[in-house]
Amino acid sequence: SVLRLLEAQLQEQRREHEEEMEALRNQVDLMQEELEKQQQAFLQTLQLSPEVQVELGLQQEITRLTNENLDLKELLEKLEKNEKKLKKQLKIYMKKVQDLEASQTTVPVERRPHERNMQVAVQRKEKDFQGMLEYYKEDEPLLIRNLIT
After folding, report:
1. Whole-angstrom Cα distance, residue 63 to residue 40?
2. Where are the domains of the chain?
3. Which terminus of the chain, N or C, has less C-beta within 10 A?
4. Per-residue model confidence as pLDDT tens digits over 8-47
5. Model pTM?
């Protein structure tokens, strides 16, 4: 049974190899045909006057540049579409961050013990010293962000 399995694998590999060889032969035939066409076009071009040769060369270059330009436009459109998608995602994430920040400010006081002290201190300080604020050092980025927004 192991011998049969190996034989089957060998036959499968041989079949795949023959298919690959056939595909390669077809590819070589197509390339030879293309080469012959290019050689004939080149020989015909050599028989033309220098002015016509230059004109044909310019036409070929214009065609090449036009195709390259179209490829670049397509790439630009893809990049712009991707940029729009990323901007939408950024807006969504910014909204989530704002919602998260808003929900943090509405979290019950008992879940944020150090903020309870800050809130009490802020209320007491506002009565005596308007504009003064007591806060923990680790809350500084959040405080600045809230002041800005």
Report:
1. 20
2. 1-47
3. N
4. 999 999 999 999 999 999 999 999 999 999 999 888 877 8
5. 0.37
